[in-house]
Amino acid sequence: MSDLVKTALVTGGSRGIGKSIVTRLALEGFQVYFTYKNSSQDAENICSELAKSKAVAKGFKLDSTDITAVKNFFKDEIKDKVELSVLVNNAGITRDGLLIRMKDENWTDVINTNLTSPFFFTQEAVKLMSKQRSGRIINISSVVAQTGAAGQANYVASKAGLIGLTKSVALEVASRNITVNAITPGFIETDMTAVLSEEISQNILKSIPLARFGVAEDISGAVAFLVGKDASYITGQVIAINGGLYM
After folding, report:
1. In whole numbers, what is the pLDDT of the chain averaged over residues?
2. How far apart are CA 119 and CA 229, in angstroms?
3. Which terminus of the chain, N or C, has fewer Cβ atoms within 10 Å?
4. Orientation of helix 104-111 relative to helix 153-173, angle to 10°
5. Where are the beta strands (DSSP E) in the chain?
6. For the chain, percent of residues with pLDDT exceeding 70
7. d(C-alpha 160, C-alpha 86), whole Å
């Protein structure tokens, strides 16, 4: 049995859903490494707050779309230093706009962050998890990956692609006792939804059978379940957490 510390890696872990996932997994007993792009102070605050509960988290500033940086991160911080038990691909951005007016860079930036980056991280993680013959990978997709959304062709394509990546990788790595699943959050109270106007918010709420937005803990709770022993026979699945938005 490995003497290395069981570690969960969460991308985009300094705010919103990512922060909630980092917090929940750390309190569940994992050493949690998380990446962030800009929010150094937020990252430091998370680690300090968790330390009060004797939970361990460490933030790494990293451009997750830079394959060289990702490979170096795994070589310098993960391989032979910790036991990578869990990978949560959570980092994501939006650059909304109608298709006919969408700038090339807005398409590329979203695809690179939301889909290519998870590919990089998953590829590196699978190399290690295959040798361990165990691991859990969770991809945070979106409800719109299953419904579509006007003005979000880039975001929807990236998150739908993430579901396809999930199912394909699940088939490839099942024999190594690695599970791969996706979560599709609906409208969750985060910085992304905070900017919605009252009118838009009310229109969205009318379409949600539970008549409320979700909270980040709804997602982190599902992640905690999927990395636990009760989920060992679940792989290649898409778990919708959306208040019944489409039934």
Report:
1. 95
2. 25
3. N
4. 30
5. 6-10, 31-36, 57-61, 83-89, 135-140, 178-185, 238-241
6. 98
7. 22
d(CA 158, CA 94): 10
Report the alpha-carbon distance of residue 47 to residue 33 in Å, rounded.
10
State pLDDT tens for residues 163-175: 999 999 999 999 9
Q: How many residues does the chain have?
A: 247
Question: CA-to-CA distance for 99 and 179, rounded, in angstroms?
Answer: 35
Query: Out of 33, 36, 155, 233, which one is annotated catalytic?
Result: 155
* pLDDT for the residue 2: 66
Residue 33 known to be catalytic: no
Contact 113, 64 (CB under 8 A): yes
Is residue 192 predicted with pLDDT exceeding 80? no
Q: Rounded to two decimals, what is the model's pTM?
A: 0.95
